[in-house]
Amino acid sequence: MANHKSSIKRIRQEEKRRLHNRYYAKTMRNAVKKLRAITDKNEALAMYPNVQKMLDKLAKRNIIHRNKAANLKSKLSAHIKSLA
Q1: Residue 22: its pLDDT value, please?
Q2: pLDDT > 70: what percent of the chain?
Q3: Are 56 and 17 in contact (CB under 8 A)?
Q4: Contact yes or no for 54/47 (Cβ under 8 A)
Q5: Neighbour-count burial for 50-69, b at 16+ CB within 10 Å, e otherwise
Q6: Contact 17/30 with Cβ under 8 angstroms?
Q7: Is the pLDDT reported for residue 84 higher than 80?
Q8: Is 1 helix (H, G, I), strand (E, B) or coil?
Q9: Contacts of 22 (CB under 8 A, 6+ apart)
Q10: Whole-angstrom Cα distance, residue 81 to residue 84?
Q11: What is the dihedral of CA 60, 64, 67, 70, to 10 degrees?
C-alpha cells in the first residue's frame, strides 16, 4: 500500500481516469461494430459522421492513438463505399 498522501491521491485519480477512458473506448468500439453491421448505405452514411467525430475526439484526448483512429476511419469509409 502507498505510504504518501500524494501517491494515494494519484492512485485514486488513475483509477477514475482508467474507468473514464475504458467507458469511452468501449463506446467507440460498439459504435464501430454497429456501423460495420449495417448493410444499408444511406443508414451507414448517416451514422458515419458521428463515429468519425467520436474517433477524432478520442484520438485528440489520447484515449486511442491517432493512427488507429485514422485506420478505423479509412476502413469504415471503404466499407461504406462497398455497400450496394
Answers
A1: 97
A2: 99
A3: no
A4: no
A5: ebbebbeebbeeebbeeeeb
A6: no
A7: no
A8: coil
A9: none
A10: 8
A11: -70
Can you tell me the distance from the alpha carbon of 84 to that of 72, in angstroms, rounded to the nearest whole number?
21
Largest CA distance in the chain: 62
Residue 33's Cα: distance from chain center in Å? 11
| CA gap 34, 12 in Å, rounded | 33
Q: What is the grid cell recorded at 10?
A: 494519484
pLDDT band at 5 (very low <50, low <70, confident <90, very high): very high
**DSSP string spanning 5-74?**
HHHHHHHHHHHHHHHHHHHHHHHHHHHHHHHHH---HHHHHHHHHHHHHHHHHHHHTTSS-HHHHHHHHH
The end-to-end CA distance of the chain, in Å, is: 58
